[in-house]
Amino acid sequence: MHHYYVVSSVRSDRSKIIDPCGVVLAETDQLSNVIYRDINLDYLVCHYDFNEGIPDRILAAYPGRVEIRSHRDDAHFLIEPTDSALTIAELQRELGFEPTFQYHARHREAYARILEGKSPLPQQAAHGDRGEWSK
Q1: Which of 28, 33, 38, 79 is the most exposed place for a label (fewest CB within 10 A)?
Q2: For every residue of the chain, which 3-state class applies, written as one string?
Q3: Other C-beta atoms within 10 Å of 44: how many?
Q4: CA distance 25 to 30
Q5: Smallest Cα–Cα separation from 135: which of 46, 48, 52?
Q6: Is the CB of residue 123 less than 8 Å from the CB of residue 106?
Q7: Other beta carbons within 10 Å of 78
Q8: Phi, psi for 107 (deg, rounded to 5)
């Protein structure tokens, strides 16, 4: 929900490393009592609305330099550069995608207008005129 990594360390069989979308990346069990994984803190969680083609564009422009983990059931994807010379800020400037927090802020503003009896402002994402679900 808040899009951060969770690393638990407990005195039981189930210590875990969980990614910002809730996916367990590593977990202890009866045979393995120590786990580890590199975690890149330069990442961004995005909603597919208005960002539909962004994962494809990133992978085409930066093959092997960025990991995209898609979660279609939740309509989210995580962008994580695997090349230390590349940053999320650079990718955002180049491709104009918006993070989930910005997406939700726009919707909170729209709901507030509706509650005031006003029409919500037209939705437009950071990358311009591309439609909500178009590439």
Answers
A1: 38
A2: CCCCCEECCCCCCCCEEECCCCCEEEECCCCCCCCCCCCCCCCEEEECCCCCCHHHHHHHHCCCCEEEEEECCCCEEEEEECCCCCCHHHHHHHHCCCCHHHHHHHHHHHHHHHHCCCCCCCCCECCECCCCCCC
A3: 20
A4: 17
A5: 52
A6: yes
A7: 20
A8: -70, -35
